[in-house]
Amino acid sequence: MKKLLAFVLAAIITFSVLPVTVLAEERVFNEKSGLVYISISDDDKYVVSDGNISGKIMAYVPVDLSKLSSVDLDKYGYGDLYYKNHDGKYEITLLLLYFYVLDNYYSGTAKELFVEGSIGSTYLKNGFWGHDENLTYYVNGKYPLASAGLGATSDSIILNDGDFIDVSMYSDWSFWSDSTAGYHYFVDSQGAVCHNFTAKAGEAAKIKYTSASTDWNASYSTTYIAAPGKTVYYAKELYADNCKSVVTDDEGFANITFPSSGTWHIWADGEYGKENTESIVSAPAYAAVEVSGEPEPTIVYGDINGDGVVDMDDVLEMIWYYNGITKSLTESQKKAADVNGDGAVDMDDVLEMIWFYNGTISKFSADKK
């Protein structure tokens, strides 16, 4: 018995001096695939990334959902803000996206982000993209709601493939009290927010531009209205110096004729308020347009040789073709030679060419049609 007691005592002493290892909770996420998109603006423009991924205009930037489960909130002191579902798994939330974006696109650090509150009731107090608390965000084109009249916070907003988030930062607080405050979007024919359109080169495309605003005092519901008389820019590169622009019509449509195929970008800047005329109170808008085909060449009637002017050389080309000296014309040359627009190149066209050259007529018949 003495020997047994001695053995037990020795074992207790031995184990008592061994280091105690506390295993951290292994978080199992509800893994998801696909992309979410984030846009970040400061007053009237989208910001430009200056972090590990630099030079990116933060307009509808894709982020792989599968990368967000690796965000370590414990490292920032917010381990209690992970969202666990009823199955015991953790969800990919908007808060994880915010930390991921700050770690990869922002020159500072995600440690600057100060989050107030507890799970389901958090507040981005300070440090988002070096900014203060004067910001808002929409999810899928709307103010995010947990229930009627109650906003959802980023730690409890679960992300899914295709979701898009807009974060707008402002220099002052005027957007809270201005009737025109909110966001802007391009929408499709069904009125749904759209970031990807298609068009054909040389053909007018009608793309509707809208203003989205939220009732901050009651239901927190988001409404859309057409935005007429607004400037919409377009170019092959977002914010290009050589961009062109159109003004939206009375129904809010931007009527744009893209001159060539490829990916084009359309955008509009954030705007000053209605009541607060010296403060930016609304966020910018962005979309991409995939343009296919090539535009039909512009026909200059009478300019058969394509040198940009109608002169004696063109008259001679017409006479030689009619008399069989010039055996053939290209399709574009035939269209230019059909100056009366009747679908055939004949003596009537020869006469109109001569009359035009001599000043007898000032315009071809085809130009009048």
From the spread of the alpha carbons, the general shape counts as elongated
Average pLDDT works out at 89
Percent of residues in beta strands: 25-35%
Helical percentage:
10-25%
Q: Strand pairing plus helix content: what structural class?
A: alpha+beta
The stretches of 5 or more residues where confidence is low (pLDDT under 50) are 1-24
Main sheet specs = 5 strands, mixed
Compressed to H and E, one letter per element, the order equals HEEEEEHEEEEEEEEEEEEEEEHHHH
Number of strands: 20
Distance between the termini: 119 Å
DSSP helical segment count? 6
| Radius of gyration over all CA atoms, rounded | 32 Å
Overview features:
369 residues; 28% strand; five-stranded mixed sheet; 20 strands; alpha+beta
Textual characterization of the structure:
The chain is an alpha+beta fold. The protein has helices at residues 2-16, 94-105, 312-322, 331-337, 347-358, 365-368, and strands spanning 35-42, 45-46, 48-50, 54-57, 61-64, 114-118, 121-126, 135-139, 145-147, 150-151, 164-169, 183-187, 196-200, 204-214, 222-226, 231-235, 244-247, 253-257, 262-268, 285-292. The strands form 6 sheets. Strands 1, 2, 5, 8 and 11 form a 5-stranded mixed β-sheet that branches. Strands 13-20-19-16-17 form a 5-stranded mixed β-sheet, with no helix packed on it. Helix 3 packs antiparallel against helix 5. The protein is elongated. The protein starts with a helix and ends with a helix.
